[in-house]
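Subject: Protein entry, chain in single-letter code together with its fold tokens

Category: Structural biology, sequence-to-fold work with a learned token vocabulary.

Notation: Tokens come from a learned vocabulary of local backbone shapes, not from coordinates.

Start of record: The labelled sequence and token lines come straight after this line.
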Amino acid sequence: MEQKMPTPADPNEAAKKAKTQRYALLSAMFLMSMSAVGPGFITQTANFTVKLGAAFAFAIIISILIDFVVQANIWRIVTITRMRAPAIANAAIPGSGYLLAILVIIGGLFFNIGNIGGAGLGFNAMIDLDPKIGGAIGALAAIGIFLSRRAGIAMDRVVFVAAFVKLALIVYAAYVSGPPVAEAFRQTFLPDTIDFVTITTIVGGTVGGYITYAGAHRLLDKGMVGVENISAVNRAALSGIAITGVLRYILFLAILGVVASGVVIDLSGKGANPAGQAFHAAAGDIGFRLFGAVFLASAMTSIIGAAYTSVSFLTAFKPDITERQRNLATVGFIAISLIAYIIITTPPAAMLVFVGGLNGLVLPIGLSIFMYAAWKRADLMHGYHYPRWLLVLGVLTCALTWYMAYKSAGAIFALLGY
């Protein structure tokens, strides 16, 4: 009998698959990194740089290290189990997925109120538009994205473009402000002051709450799952963390240059906009307009990221939700955030600082559940041998986030009084 030769793989098909995978990884990487350097982080950075000076560099480096451990574990567990975070939590500890979903959705809602406020501040700085009107425009633009027929592609493109705009403008601001780089580097590792409230707030604003799961859930939606994709997922996670780390540090240097020059930045006024003041001091009226562009780009990516990720947790209550239903729920989530923003009288800058702290309190709960799943529920890993070093780092980081939350819970809620 004549033996059939195997059909050679279609090189075009293989190239198309590789391109799709690269796009999926970039989508997850930028969604996570841009959510982590949103208007909340920018506002927090301005507030805490004014208070701590160069010593704030230590809080940033700690946040990057925590970010690495958290994202490396979360992305890996979601990829291997092929499940969303609430489903993993419920499988590991029955009922915990519902608790996690409620906390993330509530935290995401508060964060999105602040993000819409960030869009308002951005428009106000760019074109002197009333912040309430600017916030409404930003929210409605995000709603338009999720109502489009190709919502996923539209979301990715907005995030990509906003990322490059934000990076270019922040680098420019850092250059013109002339920061004391040597002093900042010294205090990155040998700080004069260590403040747990600051660290908890900045960690919450960059990796807490919904941000923890944004990239991982995007990977799941793009089909980048299973042990066969773990190497590519790890590279994407590390690249995303590197992007956020560089952006955070450059932004800090930009504001430190202003603070070190002796410029007084007002944190107490009801309408205080400390980050805007720093950009204005660094580059004059043009700098203030650039700040508006940075803040608006940050707000749009964060509105999209917060809404998309928070709504993905609805699967805890409706596992069979369709993509169309999710998009409509996301529209509703943004609309509720907008209504709350219009009603709430807390200044946007104060809200952005507070929600970072709030998500810093949520972080240890979700991380504890995930580390338990990785350590004790090998059946969820489909035979995958989880790296022990990553488990140990995860548990130690989890303990650290619990300690920070305990030390700073009361002070975080007092941040609403900024």
Observations:
- The mean pLDDT is 82.
- DSSP finds 15 helices and no strands in the chain.
- The CA atoms of residues 3 and 415 lie 75 Å apart.
